[in-house]
Specification:
Layout lengths: L4 E5 L8 E6 L2 E5 H8 L3 H13 L5 H4 E10 L2 E11 H10 L3 H51 L5 H15 L28 H14 L13 H8 L3 E2 L2 E2 L4 H15 L6 H15 L14 H13 L5 H12 L4
Antiparallel strand pairs: 1-2, 2-3, 3-5, 4-5, 6-7
Length: about 325
């Protein structure tokens, strides 16, 4: 028998103290523990158990489990196979010995089982809700891809990489037959980069990028203070804890904020995409161990356009997409 959990039983006087095994949706006691519970002799308990099965009151194969336990016998440790009896057997023995303590135990055990069932339902219900939310997010992402495609913002290669984003995002999702066995969270590594992006270094990088795109004065020209605010936000703390503690979360939110805040007169998406890969590279996250890029060029274009076209209400979903795309599993 596999004892999933041990629960201590005591009555209101604090006695007897019995280690009750809980598993397979019931509670289990050995014959020796029933002797202690009902305050009866070994022969008495053994006789009642024998009669329960001889009279076909209960099915032995369903109510008795065996477990290999280690017992101390003098100075020796001996392995012995011990029989455990389910709650049905315990209750039947309790009725036969007319034990008040047996009634107390039955009430206690039924409450334990009830609590377990309620807790189990709550956990399963929570998982179902999370999976439903994942499916909603996936549908949102697919709908967004269709919108971007219909607006002719993606070419065929970029469209292929966009759908690769979605498959990376949900990890082995089989939409028709089953849902992903994992919960889509911001699964991140413990990678700690040394580079912290700040306002001055970011402006220098944007100046270099401006030269590449013809040196227009509008390119990278700040319209307000929102760019500085974006950089501040990814390192923001609350009650001493970072809002975005991992490098993946910082990078994903950096890309999102710079795209959506429209901080510059021209070049917002290009600047956002550049700072995103620059940040990853500086923190040694842009390339995998085999030297390939963690995010392909076309995928970066598609991802940036998806963020630009997305509804602000979809921020959490878009950030999750980015995090799952660049994390250690990808």
């Amino acid at each position: 028998m596999t004892k999933d959990e041990i629960i201590i039983y005591k009555n209101e006087e604090g006695l007897p103290a019995i280690e009750v095994a809980f598993g397979n949706d019931t509670v289990w006691l050995t014959q020796q523990q029933m002797q202690q519970l009902f305050n009866k002799t070994k022969q008495n308990i053994s006789l009642h158990i024998k009669n329960i099965f001889n009279e076909n009151e209960l099915n032995k194969s369903l109510t008795v489990k065996k477990s290999l336990t280690v017992q101390k016998e003098g100075n020796r440790s001996v392995n012995r196979e011990i029989e455990f009896y389910s709650l049905d057997v315990i209750i039947s023995v309790g009725y036969r010995v007319k034990s008040v303590e047996g009634t107390k135990f039955r009430i206690w055990a039924n409450q334990i089982l009830k609590d377990y069932l309620i807790k189990g339902y709550a956990l399963n219900h929570k998982k179902l809700q999370e999976q439903t939310q994942q499916l909603i997010e996936l549908k949102q992402a697919i709908k967004l891809v269709a919108t971007v495609q219909n607006n002719h913002l993606l070419n065929n290669d970029e469209l292929k990489d966009t759908f690769k984003i979605l498959t990376d995002y949900v990890y082995a999702l089989d939409v028709l037959d089953r849902y992903d066995h994992q919960q889509l969270e911001n699964e991140v590594s413990n990678h700690k980069g040394d580079f912290k992006i700040d306002y001055d270094s970011a402006l220098e990088a944007i100046d270099d990028l401006r030269v590449k795109f013809g040196g227009s004065k509008l390119f990278g020209n700040e319209k307000d203070q929102s760019f500085k605010s974006s950089l501040y936000t990814i390192y923001q703390t609350f009650d001493g804890e970072e809002l975005y503690p991992s490098m993946e979360e910082k990078a994903a939110n950096l890309l999102y904020f710079v795209v959506k805040n429209h901080s510059f007169s021209d070049g917002n998406k290009r600047i956002a995409a550049f700072l995103f890969v620059w940040f990853l590279d500086k923190n040694k996250m842009l390339y995998r161990e085999d030297g390939t890029k963690r995010i392909a060029d076309n995928a970066l274009v598609a991802l940036t356009l998806l963020i630009a076209e997305s509804d602000p209400k979809e921020k959490e979903m878009m950030v999750k997409v980015v995090v799952n795309l660049i994390n250690y599993k990808n």
